[in-house]
Design brief:
Blueprint (H helix, E strand, L loop, with lengths): L1 H5 L4 H7 L3 H15 L1 H5 L8 H21 L1 H12 L3 H27 L9 H17 L1 H6 L4 H17 L6
Helix pairs in contact: 3-6, 3-7, 5-8, 5-10, 6-7, 7-8, 8-10
């Protein structure tokens, strides 16, 4: 009833579209997950070499953090549901992270095929570690300020870690 009133509709109308509040949250989460394809566009077909690679890393980190900030409330609910073992929420979380992970792993594999990244590097392990790191940092962006870290300092440092992880080299700035 409270949700329907805040949405400016009647409970009957709400229940016409959703079985319960959880159903509405899942619908919102699915729409948010569909928007996450924009994250893969920050990686796919982009150069990871030289100055262009450094720019790719920076734009990827900016986009990732912006996505998390924009969808913070629903992502917290998705994370909580996934942590509690709800497979529906876990599926949504994995949909968001898997597409980015796959794109980053593809970038590492491509660099390996060109001899720019050591053959012993496992692309899926590197990309999975980076995506997990980014999602954890993105979920706790506000905590960094309590540690004396400004957003303007956080982004370039994350971009450095991403660039090092993908290329195995220091960026050319």
């Amino acid at each position: 009833i409270d949700v329907a009133r805040r949405a400016g509709t009647s409970p009957a109308t709400f229940y016409q579209y959703f079985p319960d509040v959880e159903g509405a949250v899942l619908e919102i989460a699915e729409q948010m997950a569909a928007e996450s394809t924009a994250l893969t566009e920050l990686v796919e077909g982009r150069s990871w070499v030289g100055k262009a690679g450094w720019q790719t890393a920076q734009e990827f980190v900016d986009g990732f953090l912006d996505f998390w900030r924009k969808h913070d409330a629903i992502l917290r609910v998705v994370d909580l549901g996934a942590a509690e073992g709800d497979k529906r929420f876990n599926k949504i979380r994995m949909k968001i992270l898997n597409s980015v992970n796959t794109s980053l792993a593809g970038s590492v594999a491509e660099l390996q095929s060109k001899g720019r990244v050591d053959k012993d590097v496992n692309p899926a392990a590197i990309s999975g570690s980076l995506v997990t790191m980014l999602s954890a940092v993105a979920s706790h962006q506000k905590a960094f300020s309590s540690w004396g870290v400004k957003q303007t300092e956080l982004k370039p440092n994350l971009a450095l870690l991403v660039y090092l992880g993908i290329t195995g080299r220091k960026p050319t700035r």
